[in-house]
UniProtKB/TrEMBL annotation:
Record keyword Thylakoid present: no
A Pfam family recorded for this sequence: DegT_DnrJ_EryC1
Highest rank taxon of the organism: Bacteria
This protein's name: DegT/DnrJ/EryC1/StrS family aminotransferase
UniProt cofactor(s): pyridoxal 5'-phosphate
Keyword terms, alphabetized: Aminotransferase, Pyridoxal phosphate, Transferase
Signal sequence segment: none
Family named by the database record: Belongs to the DegT/DnrJ/EryC1 family. L-glutamine:2-deoxy-scyllo-inosose/scyllo-inosose aminotransferase subfamily.
Length: 388
């Protein structure tokens, strides 16, 4: 049988623009390829920080390192604990380990974002920071997180890797905590293949970030003066040249994905048991790094999520399986503290699928294809109920 969708999906990242080519060639011809030699990286750091309303920005080699730097700049040290949500990319936890601290895994709410009540219960005398994740481009409940942080005297690091341009109560992701970290990895809303940035309003935090990412130097200090412990974690001028033009394109891309997400939600109203996961209340701009959908197997003849993914792929709709709960990541087991079951995140392994960002860059007809394929799969599954 012919699949529902035979047409491909948009490329991500999009094809390079003329300004990107010109900037890359200018850097290439200048011979100033490192951040300490040219001006592209510092200019981009300032422009990106300004775009989210932050006073300062420090560009890094990737988003994981950005999280590591933010934690260290805010005083996290070996022996400390950092609370992270269970439903997130593993780097949220491994960045804590990289900083020498111990990740404490907290459950999430029905929105798949950090549960502030769970974080409150897990905070202890060794807890130094809490790191909410703005999952899929929807900001976490930062007011409730802030209450927990104030109550336990914790630093707040926003993991905004998926949230370029997101807003909560009309405030930008990036200024909702003590520091915020964004990623420019290949799949992100802005990308240079790799890269990251930490933004903060705090001048002292900025100076520590700058020093640590630049082998312990101090701003306006001598080249071979290293008063602090640091590493070479700098972005290259080539990456900054690729990123700078994308700031002007971001708004239009966000609006496009938001329109497609709305169209997808409407189309899925006809499909019982495949529903958009709601964003946290207070989200005023969701940037749709992906659209999470909650799958109800009984509505599909009891077939498990893996069967849905395979059947949808056969129809030309490659849905993504999404994350495993961090409580089920064996690599983290030796490093985690006070591990407790996280039932909401663990249930999401079997019930949540994603429509990825490139698919949301298609048109409304493509969103209708997703729903049409889901209906066909559902009909077939109901005719052949699952049995073990």
């Amino acid at each position: 049988m012919t699949p529902v969708r035979t047409e491909g999906w948009p490329q991500w990242p999009p094809p390079a623009g003329e300004e990107q080519r010109e900037r890359l060639l200018r850097v290439l011809d200048s011979g100033k390829w490192g951040a300490t030699a040219g001006g592209e990286t510092e200019a981009f750091a300032a422009a990106f920080a300004h775009s989210v309303g932050a006073a300062h920005g420090v560009c890094t080699v990737n988003g994981t390192v950005a999280l590591f730097l933010a934690l260290r700049a805010l005083g996290v040290r070996p022996g400390d604990e950092v609370i992270v949500p269970a439903y997130t990319f593993v780097a949220s936890a491994t960045a804590v380990v990289l900083a020498g601290a111990t990740p404490v895994i907290a459950d999430v709410t029905a929105t798949l974002h950090l549960d502030p009540e769970a974080a409150d219960r897990l905070a202890g005398p060794r807890t130094k920071a809490v790191m909410p994740v703005h999952l899929a481009g929807a900001p976490a409940d930062m007011e409730a997180v802030g209450y927990v942080a104030e109550r336990h005297r914790l630093a707040v690091v926003e993991d905004a890797a998926q949230a370029h341009g997101a807003r909560r109560h009309e405030r930008e992701a990036g200024v909702l905590g003590d520091a915020a970290c964004f990623s420019f990895q290949s799949g992100k809303a802005m990308t240079a293949g790799e890269g990251g940035i930490v933004v903060s309003d705090d001048r002292e935090v900025y100076e520590r970030l700058w020093s640590m990412h630049n082998v312990g130097r101090r701003i306006e200090g001598a080249w071979y003066e290293h008063p602090e412990l640091g590493w070479n974690l700098r972005m290259t001028e080539f990456q900054a040249a690729l990123l700078q033009p994308q700031l002007a394109l971001l708004e239009g891309q966000l609006e496009h994905r938001a329109a497609r997400a709305t169209a997808l939600g409407r189309a899925l109203e006809e499909v019982e048991g495949l529903d958009p996961v709601p964003a946290p209340a207070g989200t005023t701009r969701h940037t749709w790094h992906f659209a999470p959908l909650r799958y109800d197997p009984p509505a599909f003849g009891g077939h498990p999520k893996g069967a849905l993914l395979a059947a949808m792929t056969a129809e030309g709709i490659p849905l993504d399986a999404g994350y495993r709960s961090l409580t089920h990541e064996p690599s983290l087991a030796p490093y985690t503290a006070r591990m407790r079951p996280c039932p909401v995140a663990e249930a999401a392994e079997d019930t949540v699928v994603w429509v990825r960002q490139p698919m949301l860059m298609a048109d409304n007809a493509a969103m209708a294809d997703i729903a049409r394929a889901a209906l066909l799969v559902q009909q077939g599954f109901r005719q052949r109920p699952f049995s073990r």
